[in-house]
Amino acid sequence: MITIISASNRPENLSQHIAGFLARETEARGIEYRMLDLQKLPPELMSPGSYASKPAEFQPFQKAVLKARGIIMVLPEYNGSFPGIAKYFVDMLQFPESLSGVPSAFVGLAAGRWGGLRAVEQMEMVFQYRKAHLYGNRVFLPAVPKLLDDSGTLTDQETRDRLLQFLDGFLGFARALAG
Ligand SMILES: Cc1cc2nc3c(=O)[nH]c(=O)nc-3n(C[C@H](O)[C@H](O)[C@H](O)COP(=O)(O)O)c2cc1C
Question: Which fold has domain 2-178?
Answer without folding.
Answer: Rossmann fold (3.40.50)
